[in-house]
Amino acid sequence: MADTLMGEGLHGMSARTIVPACLLGLLLAGCVSALPGEDLADAARVRVTIDRELARDCAFLGMASDTNETDLQRKAAWLGGDVAVVTLASQEARAETSWYKSVTSTAEVFRCEAVR
User: Fold this and answer.
1) Domain limits at 98?
2) What is the per-residue pLDDT across 23-35, written as a single tens digit (0 to 9) for each?
3) Is residue 88 situated within a structural domain?
4) 3-state secondary structure at position 5
5) Number of domains into which the chain is organized
6) Cα separations in angstroms, 107 against 37, 70, 85, 99
7) Dihedral (CA of 74, 76, 81, 85) sign
8) DSSP reduced 3-state for 106
9) Who has the most CB within 10 Å: 2, 31, 86, 112?
């Protein structure tokens, strides 16, 4: 029982089991990197626009939606995009809604940097 931690508190788990598991957890945690879009610098590189011409000949990556422009940029960056074109439906919803209400903007996300 010499290598049992805290008596029966850990239900008989030994130090020979816990220490390697903790070391493995620390090793894996050290290998984790931030996803694109988690950093504000990544999000700031995304241009949010209503001009579809800016996305001409760009690679379509997907759709992103949010009520906040910064979060919309983060989502677009997470997809790998650098241009987010706000859809016509989102523009119309903003025009019809009172200034104090939250409106979700939906954007088509494109990667243009590699194309040009």
Assistant:
1) 40-111
2) 666 655 555 445 5
3) yes
4) coil
5) 2
6) 15, 13, 5, 20
7) negative
8) strand
9) 86
